[in-house]
Amino acid sequence: MASYDVIVIGGGPGGYVAAIKAATSGRKTALVEKEHLGGVCLNWGCIPTKSLLRNAEIMRGLSEGEKFGFSTGKIKTDYAAAQKRSREVSARLVNGIEYLMKKNKITVYRDSASFTGKKELSLEASGEKLAAKNIIIATGSKPFALPMLDYSMPNVLDSKKALQVTHAPKSIIIIGAGAIGMEFATVFRSYGTDVHIIEMLPRVLPNEDAEISALVGKEFRKKGFDVHTGTKLAKVKNDGKTVCACFEKNGKTFELQSEAVLAATGVRPNTEGLNLKLFGIKMDRRGCIEADENMCTSVPGIYAVGDVTGKLALAHAASAQGMRAVDHICGKRRGPLDYSNIPKCTYTVPEVASAGLTEEEAKENGYDVRTAVFPLSANGKAIAYGDDTGFVKLVYDEKYGQLLGMHMAGIHVTEMIWGAVGYLGMEMTVEEMAEVVHPHPTVSEAVMEAAHIANGKPVHI
Fold it and tell me: Which residues are annotated binding-site positions?
């Protein structure tokens, strides 16, 4: 039986990062992954969708050419080529992770693992037995399946199948207006698809600040998306060529027809086959593994990180948790992760980025809340780029002026939100933020301008 200091089950952003950190910390490390390294994020999520969104961005630029003084004529599109490029991008990064495994002398088992004891695993395909002083579960999640949809039908998509289709459908119903649904909507619409967006909650991007959600919903409708909020799926008929779906809203029903339907209604943890009940690892009612601030489960020496914990389904959150687990294994004690200060990004048009508390959350937490908003219509870089839709919103406490949250919509904001994480982590006040000199001309100046507004001393508005 091969024995290790650390075995990681799962090769996604939580798992492979934990494995690298363990190996570079001097621990003999193995990783078990039955599919490609990189997990859903790299293979069927974050990375390939950003590749497709880059295609969509170029399409928009070409279609808006006249306002910049050039004409391209009729644009010919090839969705299959776009998908091919997205797979090539993923493959390149997978190869990079495989190199990192070899570089750091991490043993990789291409297999599935299940527990046979608190510190022992059995590999499904090979039957090999492994032992470790510490085991990190990083098995991720999979799309939540809507019971009314028959996923065996070729025109019923989840986020993975949507990255395998080789043509953009003429029309599509997207159920779920979170980040996944809205990003796929952006891609398909850029290729001429008629897109119907259905969201059960009262607004699109329901986890974002209400003003951000309102702006995105308005912009999507302006661009020709058919958006329905506060709407539930009632029943579906599908002959493989046409989806006929009935929905309920405010006590009334309506029907939509489309070539395809995409379910983007969240994810559920991958725990099947791990044999966790063998020694009673605690799980919550959703089936997520309970883990404390150091990612320790209820069984000493067994850790859980990433989507399988149900804490925050983001790749960078999983990586941070993986590092936290290894720190604990190595005897390094750190404070708890502040999940409210882990940034969120949605790559729609406009882009959305946020960190910290929303205005609503800050009020619920008892703060005397104030806000300051600076529109990108007054930002030189955004105007020069011909894309000045959006704003930067600061949420802060009236008593001390401490920043509680930052919420952005607009061009390049996903590249700016890291600054908010620093401000929030250092508990900076809006007065201190206003003193930070930002480079000109950049969209990031909107953060400084919003801070000036918060201090009652607006400059460029």
Answer: 50, 139-141, 176-183, 199, 266, 307
Q: What domains, with CATH codes, occur in the chain?
A: 2-143+268-330 (3.50.50.60), 156-265 (3.50.50.60), 350-455 (3.30.390.30)
Single out the catalytic residue among 167, 228, 440, 460. 440
> What is the reported pTM?
0.96
pLDDT at 279: 85
| Residues 420, 421, 422, 426, CA torsion sign | positive
Reply yes or no on whether 412 is catalytic.
no
Starting at the edge strand that comes first in sequence, how are the strands of the sheet with 232-238 ordered? 232-238, 243-249, 252-258
Residues 51, 53: Cα–Cα separation, whole Å: 5
- Positions of the chain with pLDDT lower than 50, given as ranges: none
> Do 287 and 142 form a contact (C-beta atoms < 8 A)?
no
Which positions make up the binding site for FAD?
Answer: 50, 139-141, 307
**Residue 68: predicted pLDDT:** 92
Per-residue pLDDT at 190? 96
